[in-house]
Each structure stands twice: as C-alpha cells, then as structure tokens.
Design brief:
This protein is an alpha+beta fold. It has a single domain, classed as Rossmann fold. Helices cover 41% and strands 20% of the residues. The protein is built from 13 helices and eleven strands. Strands 1, 4, 5, 8 and 9 form a five-stranded mixed sheet that branches. Strands 2-3 form a two-stranded antiparallel sheet. Helix 7 crosses helix 9 and helix 11 packs across helix 12. The longest helix has 27 residues. The chain is globular. The relative contact order is 0.10.
Length: 325
C-alpha cells in the first residue's frame, strides 16, 4: 500500500516507535515445514492473481519450538503461541461444525432392497473455525486461511462426577480437545496413532462441511460441484477427503456410487511431494474400524471396484493383483 512512511509518522506522533510496536506481536513458532511453506505460497499467490481460494488447517494450541538446553542438549517445549490472542485471527463460533466419530455400522436395506448401511452410535466433536485473512500483493483480493479448533459436545458428565470418578467425568472433553492440542503427536504408541488419524479426519470433515455450506448458498444441485469447487490435497495427510466426500455424496445426498465417484474424481486433485515414510502413512484396519467404520467400508469398496477394473482391462495379467492390493 506504500504507506510505511506515513505509518511511521502516525505512530511517532502518538509517542511510540513502530519497530518496537511490531515486536509486540509474538512469532507463531509452529515450525516451517515444506508442506506448510507450499500452502502459504498457494494462498498468497492466488490472492495476488485474483483467484478466490481458501486454505484449511487445524488451530493447534501449542507449537513445538520453545527451546532450552539441558546437559548440552537442545530440549523442545510446547509453545503457547496464541497466549496473547492475535487480533488477526477471527473466531466464527456461530459456524461451528459437528463431526461424527466412532460408532458402528448397522447393516440394513432401503425400500427397494438395496444395501443401506447406517452409521450409528458415534460421538460428536465440534469444530470451531478461526480465520486468518491473506491479502494479495498490490491487489484487492483477500483469501483466508481457516483453522479449526476441537471442543467436546458434552464437556462434563454429571452422573459420572456424582459417582466420585472426577477425572472420567471430563475425559470426553479432554479427548476431544486433544485433537487440536499439538501438531504431530508421537505415533510410537497406539494412542498416538489414534490421535493422528483423528486429527486428519477432523481436518477433512470440517473442511468439507464448510465447502458444502458455501456451495449450498450458490447452487442447490450437488452434481455441479466440480464446476465450482476444486480441492487440492498435498501428501497423504488430507487423503481422507476423498473418502469423506464419497460418504457425503452417497449417504447424505443419496447419489449412486458411479455418479458420486465421478464427482469426487473431478473435484479432488492429489500431489505427492515426498517418498519419506511419514508422508506415506498407513493405519491398522482395526484402528480405522474403531474410529471410522463407514469410511473403512467405502475404502474397501473403492479397492474392490479398482481391482475389478484392473481385471477388466488386463484379463490375462491377474498376476498384478498383489501389487494392486
């Protein structure tokens, strides 16, 4: 905006120094990974090019880089980066999103005799969106980075509390809010793996709910979704978006599988940026079934149809099946 000199003068007239004032905003020491840097470039560049877009992530409560030294070793401590409450981060509590997790599948049929699985018994996690706005360089377009924090739908169980189990009375609240507590919890134990998978599902589920809410404001025909929405997935961390999109289209919008799959293929794009093990995640089937039973069904169906397509295209090369599983 070419107003730096004027800003210095205004602040000086008020008796302050602009450089000292800028130092009052703490650095959000969340690290500087390649994917994060890429996402920042996407949002910044698209705003500058006058392309409407939004980025989506999790609003982690703690960073990783408050450092100290003990016995000549660098020690990392959780950093409460948002303790001073940045004025640039705008909370939208009225747009909270309800996310199902866990539960089981009840096998049933619809009135026409078609298989109609029902996802039941799940608990609800609430996602609260917070927006950072990103302006383009010498441009009028402003895009947003939307970050979600997780809260429990039932923060306190009075019946358990009255029985004397005070810790268990708030266990659901603690478990839900752990989702947005810290980036990349250790996955060396099963609880860490469960938290990571829950984080990834929480992100894509909140994002897709937002996308569908915005889309419904301009079009009530879901079949035109690819003409209005493009979803870019970077590495495997948000790959569950494909499965969640299929679930919404098939289970909630009642589209036939083939039509839902075509919409999903034309809406989602995926880029794999590295071959490092942490970017090629795998999950135990038992864990997946515990947290996302309906999504596991959809993954099995995608794989089944893919293998059928392989057999149809190359009927004499069934030997390739093991490489396709």
């Amino acid at each position: 905006m070419n107003l730096l000199a004027e800003m210095h003068q205004v602040v000086n007239d008020l008796g302050f120094d602009l450089d000292h004032l800028l130092d009052e905003e703490p650095d959000a020491a969340l690290g500087n990974g390649g994917l994060g840097r890429l996402a920042a470039c996407f949002i910044d560049s698209m705003a500058t090019l006058d392309i409407a877009a939004s980025g989506h992530g999790i609003k982690y409560e703690y960073g990783l880089f408050r450092q100290s030294f003990q016995n000549d070793q660098q020690i990392e401590h959780p950093d409460d980066w948002h303790s001073m409450h940045s004025p640039w981060l705008v909370e939208h509590h009225a747009q909270q999103i309800l996310i199902p997790l866990g539960g089981y599948i009840e096998h049933s049929e619809d009135v026409d005799g078609n298989y109609n699985p029902m996802w039941l018994g799940w608990k609800t996690i609430i996602g609260i969106p917070h927006d950072y706005f990103v302006s383009g360089y010498r441009d009028t377009t402003t895009n947003k980075l939307r970050l979600y924090s997780a809260v429990a739908s039932d923060s306190f169980n009075i019946h358990i509390f009255n029985r004397g189990d005070y810790i268990k009375a708030v266990s659901d609240k603690i478990a839900s809010e752990n989702i947005s507590k810290i980036l990349y919890p250790s996955d060396e134990v099963l609880t860490g793996k469960e938290l990571r998978l829950t984080q990834e599902y929480f992100l894509v589920a909140c994002t897709l709910r937002d996308i569908f809410r915005d889309y419904a404001e301009v079009n009530d025909d879901i079949t035109f979704l690819p003409q209005h929405v493009a979803i870019q997935l970077n590495d495997t961390h948000p790959a569950l978006a494909v499965v969640e999109l299929m679930r919404i289209l098939v289970d909630e919008h009642r589209l036939p599988w083939e039509q839902a799959w075509e919409i999903t293929q034309n809406t989602c794009a995926y880029t794999n940026h590295t071959l490092m093990p942490e970017a090629l995640e795998t999950w135990p089937v038992t864990l997946f079934e515990k947290l996302l039973p309906r999504h596991l069904q959809i993954i099995f169906e995608i794989n089944h149809r893919f293998l059928e397509e392989v057999a149809r295209r190359w009927p004499d090369k069934i030997i390739c099946y093991p490489r396709c599983l």
